[in-house]
Structures are given as structure tokens and as C-alpha cells.
Amino acid sequence: MNPDEQEEMNEWHEALLRVRYAETDKMGVVYHANYLVWFEIGRTEFCRARGFSYRDMEENENAFLVVAESYCRYKAPAYYDDVLIVRTHITELRRRSLRFGYELVRESDGVVIAEGETGHVVTDANGRVRSMPPGFAELLLAPPNETERRASSGRAAALISGQCAVGSEQ
After folding, report:
1. In the annotation, is 25 catalytic?
2. Of 40, 42, 88, 169, whose CB neighbour count within 10 A is largest?
């Protein structure tokens, strides 16, 4: 991998979400398994920002990004109604696998509440390991498209004003 590709991998994509009541326990603290769901939201939005979705890979290329491992380090609690920034970037990209890194940051005070990583293997519909489809590695390394940047800004404004809950859709 050349230095330019390495620099592109270090670029974080940010998505906002608001902690829903159903994601907390009796004490109002987020249940630990939800962090992995939020990582998935981060991955999904990372890909959308680069012009494709998981569905595109699955339906058009018979390629699936299977989660082979996941890791989450909980650093501070998240609470009901917190607005969180899901920061996502690629930490490793190979011919048949890739890794995403994550940070979950509470927007109100900038506290990193969790960090983690997921490792993915590219497979076909039968679960056999295969290479990344042509063009997708380049899309993953590309900067977000301008249309997505504007849309993200609009969603963030709507989330803060309470008009929608970004991140609840997959």
C-alpha cells in the first residue's frame, strides 16, 4: 500500500445517532451489545458516503462482508437521549478482508465512550472466501462524495432539532 492510500484509510467518517430508551437498561445506561449495532451503523454510513451499500455488493457482485471478529473497549457510559458521533475508518484493506476502526463520542462533552474494531472477510453467498469485487476497494479508499457530505449535514441539523433519529435505519 502506498503512502497516499494509507493516508486515505486514516480519514474518519462521522454519523450521528441519538440513544433511544429501548437501548438502555433500568438505570438509563446503554446496554453493551448496542455498541456493536452502532458500529454497523458507522460502517453502513461509511460505505454510503462513498457511493455504495452492502446491498449493492450482495445483489450485484455476490459479495458479502462477513464479520469475522469484533472488539469493543468501553471507556465511559452512554445514557438515554445522548447524541453520539459514530466515527468510522478503515484500518486495513486486503484483497479478501478488511478492518474498520470505530470511536463513539458523546457530542455534548466530546468524551470518547467506546472504541473498537471489526474484521471482515469477503465471501460469496455460499460462505466461500473470495476477493473483493473490482472497484469496491477504490470506493472504500475514496473520500466521501459531496452529495453525501451535504446530506449528512442536513441530517445532523435535523437530529439536533429533534425532527428525526439518524442511525435507526439500516
Report:
1. yes
2. 42
Taken as a whole, the chain contains a residue count of 170
Domain extent at residue 32:
3-157
pLDDT number for residue 5: 52
Give the span between the Cα atoms of 156 and 150, in whole angstroms: 10
Phi first, then psi: what are they for 76, rounded to 5°?
-160, 155
Instruction: Report yes or no on 105 lying in a domain.
Output: yes
Grid cell digits, residue 140: 472504500
For the range 100-106, what are the long-range contacts, defined as Cβ-Cβ under 8 Å and sequence gap of 24 or more?
100/39, 100/42, 100/43, 100/46, 102/38, 102/39, 102/42, 103/12, 104/35, 104/38, 104/78, 106/76, 106/78, 106/82
Convert the pLDDT of each residue in 79-91 to its tens digit.
999 999 999 999 9
- Catalytic residue, chosen from 25, 81, 82, 109, is 25
> Is residue 104 domain-resident?
yes
Give the span between the Cα atoms of 17 and 88, in whole angstroms.
13
**Total of domains in the chain:** 1
**CATH code (residue 141):** 3.10.129.10
* 167, part of any domain: no
